[in-house]
Structure prediction request, 786 residues.
Amino acid sequence: MSKENGIKGGLKQVLGGDLRQFVMVGAVIVALIIFQILNNGRMITSSNFQNIISGNAYVFTLSIGMVMVIILGQIDLSVGSVAGFVGMTVAITASEYGWPWWVATLGGLGIGALIGAWQGFWLSKMGIPGFISTLAGMMIFRGGVIWMSHSISRPAPEELSWFGAGSLPEWGPNTGLNNSTLLLGVIAIAAVVFMQLRKWKRLATAESKPPLWPVIVRLVVIVGVIGYLTYLFGSGNIGTSFPVPGLIVGFLVVIYHIITQHTRFGRHIYAVGGNKAAAALTGVNVSRTYFLAMFNMSILAAVAGIMFIGRSTAAGPSDGNSWELDAIAAVFIGGAAVSGGIGTVVATIVGGLFMAVLNNGLMLYGVSADQTQVIKGLVLLAAVAVDVLNKQQGRPSIFSRLSRKKAAPAEIPQEQIATESAA
Amino acid sequence: MKNNKRIIAVAAAFALAVPLALTGCSGDRGSGGGDTGSGFPADATVGVALPWLGTQNWAEANDMFAEQLAEAGFKPLVQQADNKVPQQQSQIEAMIEQGASVIVVGPVDGSQLGTQLEKAKEKGILIIGYDRLLENTTGVDAVVQYGSIRTGELQGQSLLEGLKELKGDGPYNIELFAGGPADPNAPNFFTGAMSVLQPKIDDGTLVVVSGQTTFEQAATLDWDNSKAQARMDTLLSGFYSDKQIDGVLSPNDGIARAILTACAQAGQDQPVVDGLDAENESIVSIWEGHQYSTTAKPTDKLVAKTIELIQAAQKGEALPEPTSSTNNGKIDVPLYELDPVIVTKANIKEVFADDPSRLELLK
Prediction:
């Protein structure tokens, strides 16, 4: 790497290949700070952070499945209806048929899987585009919710409220924090440090070692952020902690990050989404990939629906209305491409988090619903526009265009830097 | 191998050091409980969580709360949830964060706010349901509303009176429409109206030609006027090609106007149609002799009653005696119910005598 690039080169080394993600995280942090000032310090508090996480856990969960479907170049418009349908099924079986809460919940997940198989069938075996087959699903399952509930809300099993809005237990010595949250923070930090160091070690060969300092700087920043979040979530009122729905989402993010980035199925998703014909020629089972992605989406929709009725203490006939749009917005703010082949689970969650912070901050500031909608629409458009400009071929990225003015003319082209740092 | 162990050791050291360093600087954690009763400051924050601004009555409530709470010396924080439950949940949480002493809730769905309302209750916040019941939660202190069954009864009566007045002697051909199935009031309106109409259907005075008499059949998804109009079109072409329709039970004004439009387009004589909410357009329609009646639930009275309760609580007094109470699934909730007013062309000027903006329409 070229040292003569000075600060910019150093920054690139610290950020590594994940430039985009760090920019997004930066945007979230900037938004938080702006709202913290506007709202006289009511934004960055433990209870508000707990609210943001448990209030948006269902969107995060949906968007994890949605990004995989969108990478495939498809879309699923039925997720809101499916979530509502499953939530209502769980509430009715528990409250009217007297099923124990866990049987009702497993039943709900089973229904989610059946619906997923149904959606997958129409896309993968019958070749009906996802937009249409899931538009049909959106109507079918919305109608189903209203039909079976007679439009009356049903109470959700009380045990579910732990999954939708609960806190982790308090235990052990008085550290001034919720010890469950503290433990989570410790585990997260250990995992990040371990993985970063292992990645660095893998790159190191006998002859050349990449410099260690960018890794250390990166670690200090990440560890600082996680440590601060641990403190923030852990120092709320006694009995509160990092919310359980947040933990569920965190767990899902780790699982699906691994699935999409480190398994064959994950590579197939990107291959099919990037170029379906080429993927088929190289032996990828396109139809199976479609099926699994849709199948998985509906199961995640079921999880989201169950978490939501837990938080709401009841299932209502309009649950899930337009949730698909929130999930889709998160995916595109996270940088996925409409044409498929591009996007990641982690970036999607950051995108969803950005929308959640924006929504929450505007709400705290007392901005009315109509104006909030306008602002969110503009932000969505701006985020995607920046991304599109960034990706246009043959043009330098915005990042490098901004810094190019000051840089020497003989600078290494942007493309080359990107490939080097990604290597 | 050796190197791997070193990495683990470094990782572990990092992991332990940072949070422990942070715990060192943390203060005491609160218990989250607040004091209840005994009043609150006269300039306290009052949160008002409304479902949306999409109909005139909610838009009016929005403005009236903002103005009148400010006049009463409180700090109003009025928000609208765009008819989305999760949005309203977050808004109530945000109001708790803002340190509100009172939260007035016009719920999108009254049974889905349990977690947030109980959280507010724990903090000693006074919670008043506005216009709709808050169900399935212990976090509610009072509900101020127009009796919804009573509203339905009045709608049914008004339809009968209109038929007698305008359509001569029976039997009358009628159709039934109900409101949005997700709104807990909608079935109550329908039940109230049917308690008046059913005996007349049974004795043959009223004939529901389509035979669609259950709430599910009559319901209008999301109170959507265009869906009501489409249903009316279908009913007219399916059942009324050789008949005249005399009257239609309508749950609100928007749907009433949609029904009248459908009838006019089908070449039917204008049927007797009731309504609800006294929207401006319907007031004009009644004045011009199209829509027969509407049911006014004056927003100002409801807002005034709500503010009266807030002021009593602010002084630390007990809330006034409720008109009745109802079980919401968890506890008995004190209800403060007001009676709606039927408005026809005959009494329209009296009803809106104090309402200059509506009087303006009657010219």
The domain at 149-297+346-351 of chain B is CATH 3.40.50.2300 (Rossmann fold).
